[in-house]
Hints:
Blueprint: E1 2-7, H1 36-44, E2 53-58, H2 59-68, E3 77-80, H3 86-100, E4 105-110, E5 114-115, H4 118-135, E6 138-144, E7 153-160, E8 171-178, H5 182-190, E9 194-203, H6 204-214, H7 216-219, H8 222-226, H9 230-236, H10 242-247, E10 253-258, E11 262-263, H11 271-274, E12 283-291, E13 297-308, E14 313-318, E15 321-326, H12 333-339, H13 342-349
Parallel strand pairs: 1-2, 1-4, 2-3, 6-10, 12-13, 13-14
Antiparallel strand pairs: 4-9, 5-11, 6-9, 7-8, 7-9, 8-10, 14-15
Helix pairs in contact: 3-6
Amino acid sequence: MRWAVVLAGGVGSRFWPLSTAARPKQLLPLAGARPLVVEAVARLLPLVPAERVLVVTSRALRSPLAAALPELPDANVLAEPFAASTAPALAWATARAAAADPAACVLSVHADWTVGDPDAFRAAADAALALAASAGALVTVGARATRPEIGYGYIVPGAELPGQGGAGAARRIARFVEKPDAAAAARLIAGGALWNTGMFAWTARRFREECARHTPELAGGFAALDRGDPTGFYAAVTPVSVDVGLFERTAAGAVVAGDFGWDDVGSWAALPRVRAADGAGNVVVGDAHAVDASGCVVWSEAGATVVDGVRDLVVVRTRGITLVTTRERAPRLKELLARLPPALAGGPGAADGGGAAAGEPA
């Protein structure tokens, strides 16, 4: 049976001041009318039934996420005891799937992406699941890179897998490159590298076997999972991402390429890529107005906000806070928050300690 896991931890501090502990990035309608997590689950349901979709999040976010996703059984929203990065979150969810179906094949996605072509997304996910089931591979889906993005990780494909010939052939993973500079990213793209989306597929059995061989950070906790004790599992493991803890160590990894308009919407600067803009490239949401302006993002939830005669600004007004920055500096909001008074900046960082640490890129 096919299962899906949606990682929905984190608060998306790069979307401060709109993103807060109570209303984090994945619960915001950043790309359209519906919250990102609602869109994420909707993309999956034609491929995986709701009863086999699991969401991993923090204790603080469990209730609002369950309320936002009434189509899922309440028990399918899993609250981590505390944050431990993506490998423990996926190990727990995969164990839950295996307990219901030992032959489970699991697809992992993040709650905070946007996808321009849902049908192509599902085709890539279907190919990854099929390869995981037929070849016993640990599969990652790489997205076609359209620009030298320095905030993304990259996958360098290697040789074709035996018996997987053709234009869309699955390949071995030659190496991962994390957040290169612009020049290095351009060279990687020219050489055929793909963006590392963080979408994975595996059978529950093969995932467990490969973790036992290569991921000592998790090995000590599997006994607790086997007896249905996630708190004991988290207490016994060492936080590690699934990329570092498993994919960079296993010889069973494979990559499938996809072209489905993927974007991780990492900061306010990303909104013009995922929302409709006016003729001057401005994205305005709420009671917001751009006059003789270009390339601006203006989001207002608290009264009229007007920008005039400016370019490439981000202006956000909400909860009695007004943020004005540039699109160039917007990805560095975490640095700004560290320099603000805790009472002002504390909202995005105040989430309960549990979290998949995957709803927001590192």
